[in-house]
Design a protein that fits this description.
The chain is an alpha/beta fold. Strand 2 and strand 3 form a beta hairpin. The protein is elongated. The chain binds uridine-diphosphate-N-acetylglucosamine and calcium ion.
Amino acid sequence: MSEHNLAIVILAAGQGTRMKSATPKVLHRLGGRTLLGHVLRSAESLGADLVRVVVRHEREQVAASLDDYPGAIAVDQDEVPGTGRAVQVGLHALPSDFEGDVLVLSGDVPLIEVETFQAMLSEHRARGAAATLLGAHLADPSGYGRVIRGSDGMVERIVEQKDATPEETVVTEINPGVYVFRAPALRGALEQVGTDNAQGEMYLTDVIGILRRGGDTIAGVTAPDAGVALGVNDRVQLGEAARILNQRVVRRWQLAGVTIQDPATTWIDDTATLAQDVTVLPNTHILGATSVSAGATIGPDTSLVDTEVGENATVRRSDATLAVIGRGVNVGPWAYLRAGAELAEGAKAGTFVEIKNSTVGAGSKVPHLSYVGDAEIGEGVNLGAGAITANYDDIAKHRTVVGDHVKTGSHTVMIAPVTLGAGAKTGAGAVVRKDVPPGALAMSVAPQRNLPGWVEKHRSGTAAADAAVEAQGSEKQADGE
Ligand code: UD1
Ligand code: CA
């Protein structure tokens, strides 16, 4: 539903110095999205018609990241620094007659969910407030702006840590950096904000004191838990935010019917989906756009990125990216499925098997020590241990086609481009350079020749020669000589 009376201004112009990174702070990732992406997603679900993102530092990269959110428009902050100035330029980019509510969000505060914004908006409107804050108490409030209340318990102003007196520093009620304002009140108050403070910046937080002194109502909503207020300014906070988000995602899937044996070592991106009765074993990462269907078991020690897993499949101690694992498929332990690996129903990719850009037909097995690249494997195939598709001739990649019900002997090398017809077989160690007709047995290895006594003659005195002499002696005895 669209909200005509709501505008959202997201602050994303800051430098993020404390991240010590070539990547702009708001583009650092957690749970499968950027910090800014999380904020934009919550903003999007509020259905506001007007979304403005204030950019400056690394503006091209940050603005380009808005492509996934068609409603969001980048606005450039000028050389005047500070969150107050950022909001001011955001407001300028709204229709000049906009008189509704402005939700101000920080691009570096990623964990606030849409329900909290909704609660803030309802309280703001019910109270007819000029500004509504989110209230949060932190055991360690250092770094945050503190909420200063009067003797009547009402919010008077916000003071930044760098400008706080020692008495103000001990206050544990902090400003999470998200607010709802009535647009005209915000416009007016910002005109009075100066830069006379420790950082020489226009502080948005000064608006609260200005409105309060003008007799306006400041409302507040309590944050559901302290974690939501977490602002990401350095990599320690990034790690902490990732952990909190992950706990939340894991819990959401547990409540939706997924067994997660060890939440502490399970990482599930916010972007992944899991069905009922999936089991996730320890030390497993389910990332990106991965989807796992009902009854599948993933892990332990498994990483899935942008991968589709079918019903009742099993993936153990394996790594898959951009793969499609069909219903009832068995993967691992120690398999590596790369982009374009598609295993049809009941197929198997076993131990130390790498598959990329290949289809493996229903019920087909690649059980041990194999590389399958750029291949089309039919149904009911068994590739013996050590099967290799030699797909690359140093210039180009070529395809291998293996027909239904083919069985290859151990250590078969298929030199692509090559086709093995339906029902064909290969001998152990075959190097298949020519197409094999359906039903044929391909052998490329010369018949074995034994040279009797070679070791005794050429390696006399070695342990091998002695063992050979002894074995021959006992063979003669057994023959009754
Ligand atoms: C800010 C608040 C502080 C609050 C904290 C919550 C101010 C003055 N302080 O402090 O009270 O407790 O957030 O996390 O508002 N930004 C711009 N333009 C600028 C400066 C910053 O767009 O000129 C953006 C940043 O990209 C960031 C957000 O505003 O997304 C907050 O800026 P930051 O410098 O991190 O402020 P804090 O010191 O964390
Ligand atoms: Ca911050």
